[in-house]
Automatic annotation (TrEMBL):
<dbReference type="GO" id="GO:0008270">
    <property type="term" value="F:zinc ion binding"/>
</dbReference>
<dbReference type="InterPro" id="IPR014782">
    <property type="entry name" value="Peptidase_M1_dom"/>
</dbReference>
<dbReference type="InterPro" id="IPR027268">
    <property type="entry name" value="Peptidase_M4/M1_CTD_sf"/>
</dbReference>
<feature type="domain" description="PDZ">
    <location>
        <begin position="888"/>
        <end position="971"/>
    </location>
</feature>
<dbReference type="InterPro" id="IPR007314">
    <property type="entry name" value="Cofac_haem-bd_dom"/>
</dbReference>
<dbReference type="Pfam" id="PF04187">
    <property type="entry name" value="Cofac_haem_bdg"/>
</dbReference>
<dbReference type="Pfam" id="PF01433">
    <property type="entry name" value="Peptidase_M1"/>
</dbReference>
<dbReference type="GO" id="GO:0043171">
    <property type="term" value="P:peptide catabolic process"/>
</dbReference>
<dbReference type="GO" id="GO:0005615">
    <property type="term" value="C:extracellular space"/>
</dbReference>
<dbReference type="InterPro" id="IPR036034">
    <property type="entry name" value="PDZ_sf"/>
</dbReference>
<dbReference type="InterPro" id="IPR001478">
    <property type="entry name" value="PDZ"/>
</dbReference>
<dbReference type="GO" id="GO:0016020">
    <property type="term" value="C:membrane"/>
</dbReference>
<dbReference type="GO" id="GO:0070006">
    <property type="term" value="F:metalloaminopeptidase activity"/>
</dbReference>
<dbReference type="InterPro" id="IPR050344">
    <property type="entry name" value="Peptidase_M1_aminopeptidases"/>
</dbReference>
<protein>
    <recommendedName>
        <fullName>PDZ domain-containing protein</fullName>
    </recommendedName>
</protein>
<dbReference type="Pfam" id="PF13180">
    <property type="entry name" value="PDZ_2"/>
</dbReference>
<dbReference type="GO" id="GO:0005737">
    <property type="term" value="C:cytoplasm"/>
</dbReference>
């Protein structure tokens, strides 16, 4: 039994090792060169001397970096050669190759320095191969120097000099060497050696750093997997650096005592031993490690403090401040930090990428995928593609489009949230209709939105992929506000209220420096030089914010009107920023100082203080940091919102036509009876045609069965009279033909195709009376599939219906609603059909505004059919303006409609003619003697059987014309001359038809 228990314990130990210990054997089996290096350091001469033996596996080319080195002997496979000065390529062979190199070098400046004060060799300090190799490193130094390099085990041989042997069993890139008069503090934690290498003046920091190392390694082992090495050390550097290497980090001596270095920077550097110094970066394919480590270290720390959203917001502020179009590049092209812009991309955008991936997959899958990536790539080069493959395998999902969008594109998505309508429902509920808009290029995003009412909060996530996405949400209590992405879970452009005027915006953009006089320039010359290096120009004249579109820095004196923008401050130097009220995309800054010395002391700190709206200092010590205020998320008021516009910004119709000229579909939403709106439509059509745009004109007022009539008229095969008769215009459309005539005439003159969009009136009338259920199978086959998903549109139509309920013939809202849907779906299908058959064409659609306002009716239905490249222009909308209504609105000056001859009677269609039910006083009918009860049977000798026949006769009449009307009166035919009509056309306000 005891033997069985021992065997069981042994098996469990083996199982634990296989499962949790990094796969070192696998790494060692990989075909890497091995390098034995023996070197001697002579600090008093800034000299390193040594020899390197390099064994190259069969069938492997290598490149040797010899830059900065003096090569004394170079032997390959027993033959002495002379290598090139910097790089030497060694070609492969069927059998292993053997190099012996003797070298020396003197180093006096970074990245390699050898001095009596310290040895810092982080560059090319010995003959190293490009890529990974196994290194066996032995280094001799004078007594008093303590050395460290990557190693799981360090053996020290004492003698006249101390010789350090660094044993590192894993492939690595060229190892650094650091040495100095260190005091070494170390302890064991489980199977790890934890160490701190400090100069004497910082000895007191040892305990705190050892504790933090232990805490951090334990945390990341739980999160990711076992620490890959057997040692970790914090090493003090005489230079102010923050470097991570396998098994140690190198931190500047002035930085080490700062609490934030230990609490924030150290975890970042330790984590690099998993990612960057454990799983290596495949540099030609982009540096993923900085973004990942920033997310798992710096962001994670903020998250634990409850400040994750604030941290992400700061990343977005930095990106927007420093990354200008000329400095932008795709995330996958990031290699290392060169400036603030590259840092904002590689570290900031990179961290946000991993946050969005975590949001997309969920915590469990995200961290499982991370562990898989770590296990599968330890001690190997890895790329973004390897990260994608690990997460795809772990989650059994496709992530190609997500990775491509975020890695290959520059910039960030630009979103907005717009209120469409708030519609009261029953039982204290409201329907909130919102729209998310997105500028090109479009991203596939999951957008978090919170809707707040007086009684509750509701949280939703919306999947978007195009220019706009609609949302309908029911909520109890009166809606108050909606907030998009208030926790900054998306990498996106910040809107104005979210983008505070911080110092980073001053440092990241160009501008002007304004001084009150030449006398102050000496005091500010260091600050002026600092800003000039960032693109600022010192102006000899006063610059006002309304004159330029750049930042302005005022030295010493502020213009009177801006003094209220800045707080009262204390300190020998202050630099403050504020939003420019006349150009909110830019900022105004104010600087004052008592001496040039004060600026000199604080200047090195300035760029590290970019998150603040201002700072003040005394004797180089920052005494005030002004935190910026901003609105969290993209907010839209739902209860009471007031908007306005600057009249100076009103655009001409030509500029609007130009702005929409490339859209596939251009909706021109009209009130059918407004002549000035039709003239405005004509102006847009003319502009597009004259610019060579290949347009067709889609018409709501003509129905699909009459398409051939429109084709014949445009081709000149039939006259206007025949066109109106064959298209049954007067039977099927009740509005004055002359309102549309200028547009139709222009199309005919220029051979612009006209497209009949609408469903047959017989079908829509039947649906309006009895509903879709009343249609026969043959009639149903003539209409498209009906979509009822848009609740906001339904409630909008209910409002329209209730406004006209008493005056309309249709008394049932459901049938009215279904008829509207038939109109919308049919016209949408007609548009899509035409453009699929004519892919080179664009279409200008003339339609009642109710069919397009808020994108509800036809636009949403062509989008559902895959046609999303459209724009909406509303003409003379009478509702309160709302950004969601349309893309543009036009307000043409009122224009009297063309003359339309009318008798002045109320009629009813009968089988034998038109029965006059009422004669209106003062009209041509009354003056001519027409009477109630008369039945009109002829007009100008043409038979009149329905109202459309009479309208066709009257359509050509002018104000001074008359018409000969034959009526049946008491069984006899009476001929009556009616006219002239000039007194009939009184200026009365008409109700429009915006279905």
């Amino acid at each position: 039994m005891k033997k069985f228990a021992k065997n069981l314990k042994f098996l469990m130990l083996i199982f634990w090792l296989v499962l949790f210990v990094p796969n070192i054997c696998q790494s060692e089996s990989l075909n890497y060169p091995s390098i034995l290096l023996e070197a001697s350091i002579r600090p008093e001469k800034n000299l390193v001397e040594g020899r390197a033996e390099i064994k190259i596996p069969p069938d492997q080319d290598i490149s040797l970096n010899l830059s900065g080195l003096k090569i004394k002997r170079f032997i390959i496979d027993g033959k002495r050669l002379t290598p090139s000065e910097k790089f030497t390529n060694i070609s492969s062979s069927d059998s292993p190759r053997h190099l012996k190199i003797k070298f020396s070098a003197r180093f006096t400046s970074l990245p390699n320095i050898i001095s009596e004060r310290a040895v810092v060799l982080t560059g090319n300090w010995f003959p190293a191969v490009d890529g990974l190799a196994y290194y066996d490193l032995k280094v001799s130094l004078p007594k008093g120097f303590v050395a460290i390099a990557p190693g799981d085990e360090i053996k020290i041989k004492s003698g006249r000099k101390n010789t350090y042997h660094f044993i590192f069993r894993y492939p690595q890139e060229r190892p650094p060497l650091i040495a100095g008069p260190y005091f070494v503090y170390q302890e064991q934690s489980k199977n790890l050696t934890l160490a701190v290498y400090l100069f004497e003046e910082n000895n007191s920091l040892a305990r705190a750093y050892l504790d933090k190392i232990k805490e951090t390694i334990n945390e990341y082992e739980t999160l990711i997997g076992p620490y890959p090495y057997r040692r970790f050390a914090v090493v003090e550097n005489v230079f102010q650096t923050g470097y991570a290497f396998p098994s140690f980090t190198l931190i500047g001596s002035r930085l080490l005592p700062l609490p934030f270095i230990r609490e924030t920077s150290l975890p970042h550097e330790i984590l690099h031993n998993w990612f960057g110094c454990g799983v290596y970066v495949n540099w030609p394919k982009g540096n993923w490690s900085e973004g990942l480590v920033t997310y798992l270290a710096d962001h994670r720390l903020a998250e634990k403090k409850g400040e994750g959203a604030l941290y992400r917001h700061r990343l977005l502020v930095n990106y927007q401040s420093y990354v200008t179009p000329e400095k932008d590049f795709p995330l996958q092209m990031f290699v290392g930090r060169k400036d603030r812009a590259s840092q904002a991309i590689g570290y900031g955008k990179g961290a946000l990428f991993f946050h969005m991936l975590r949001q997309k997959l969920g915590d469990k899958a995200f961290f499982a995928g991370l562990k898989r990536f770590y296990r599968g790539n330890l001690f190997k080069y890895a790329s973004w593609e390897d990260i994608k493959e690990a997460f795809e395998k772990e989650t059994n999902s496709q992530l190609k489009s997500f990775f491509n969008e975020w890695l290959e594109r520059t910039g960030l998505p630009k979103l907005n949230l717009v209120k469409e309508r708030i519609i009261p429902l029953k039982n204290g509920e409201y329907l909130v209709a919102l729209r998310i808009t997105q500028e090109k290029p479009y991203y596939q995003l999951t957008v978090p939105i919170e809707v707040v009412s007086q009684k509750e909060k509701k949280f939703i996530k919306a999947n978007i992929s195009g220019p706009q996405t609609r949302l309908d949400l029911k909520i109890k209590g009166k809606p108050v506000e909606a907030i998009l992405d208030q926790d900054y879970d998306l990498a996106r452009r910040l809107t104005e209220p979210e983008y505070p005027p911080v110092l980073a915006r001053l440092f990241g953009k160009k501008g002007f420096i304004v001084a009150p006089n030449q006398m102050v320039l000496h005091r500010y010359k260091l600050l002026i030089s600092f800003l000039e290096k960032r693109g600022y120009i010192l102006s000899s004249n006063f610059v006002s914010p309304d004159e330029v579109a750049e930042n302005i820095v005022y030295l010493e004196t502020l213009p009177e009107k801006f003094r209220g923008l800045f707080p009262q401050t204390r300190g020998s130097f202050c630099l403050l920023t504020s939003e420019n009220p006349e150009n909110p995309s830019q900022i105004i800054a104010f600087a004052r100082t008592t001496s040039i010395l004060e600026i000199k002391k604080v200047l090195p700190k300035l760029e590290h203080l970019g998150r603040y709206q201002g700072i003040c200092s005394n004797n180089g010590v920052v005494i005030d940091k002004i935190e910026p205020g901003f609105k969290k998320g993209i907010k839209v008021k739902l209860d009471f919102d007031i908007k306005g516009l600057a009249l100076k910004d009103l655009n001409s119709i030509e500029s609007i036509a130009r702005a929409v000229s490339l859209k596939k579909v251009i909706f021109l939403g009209e009130r059918h009876d407004r002549y000035e709106q039709h003239l405005a439509q004509l102006e847009i059509i003319k502009w597009l045609h004259e610019q060579g745009r290949p347009i067709a004109i889609g018409l709501e007022m003509f129905q699909r069965p009459f398409q051939q009539v429109l084709d014949d008229y445009i081709a000149g095969r039939i006259s206007e009279e025949e066109f109106l008769k064959k298209s049954e215009y007067f039977k099927r459309w009740r509005f004055n033909w002359k309102l549309y005539k200028p547009i139709i005439d222009y199309a005919r003159e220029n051979k612009i195709p006209l497209v009949a969009l609408n469903a047959p009136k017989e079908i829509t009338d039947k649906v309006a009376r009895e509903g879709l259920k009343a249609l026969s199978p043959e009639e149903k086959a003539r209409i498209p599939e009906i979509n009822r998903e848009n609740l906001a549109y339904r409630e909008f139509l209910r409002f329209v219906f209730e406004q006209h309920e008493n005056s309309g013939k249709i008394k049932n809202f459901e049938t009215f609603y279904e008829a509207q849907l038939v109109w919308d779906e049919t016209m949408a299908q007609s548009i899509v059909n035409y453009l699929e058959k004519h892919p080179d064409k664009q279409m200008v659609v003339l339609v009642g505004s109710g069919h397009v306002i808020y994108g509800y009716g036809i636009p949403s239905r062509i989008a559902r059919r895959g046609l999303k490249d459209y724009t909406i222009i509303l003409l003379g909308p009478e509702e309160t303006l709302n950004p969601a209504m349309a893309d543009y609105v036009l307000f043409p000056e009122p224009k009297e409609a063309p003359f339309e001859a009318k008798l002045g009677v109320l009629i009813e269609e009968k089988t034998n003619g038109l029965l006059i039910k009422k004669v209106f006083p003062g009209t041509p009918a009354e003056k001519a003697g027409l009477k109630e009860g008369d039945i009109i049977i002829k007009a100008d000798k043409q038979d009149i059987k329905e109202l459309a026949d009479l309208k066709a006769v009257l359509a050509g009449k002018k104000p001074d014309d008359d018409v000969l009307v034959a009526v049946l009166r008491k069984g006899k035919v009476v001929n009556i001359k009616v006219g002239p009509f000039k007194m009939e056309n009184k200026k009365t306000k008409k109700k429009g038809h915006a279905k």
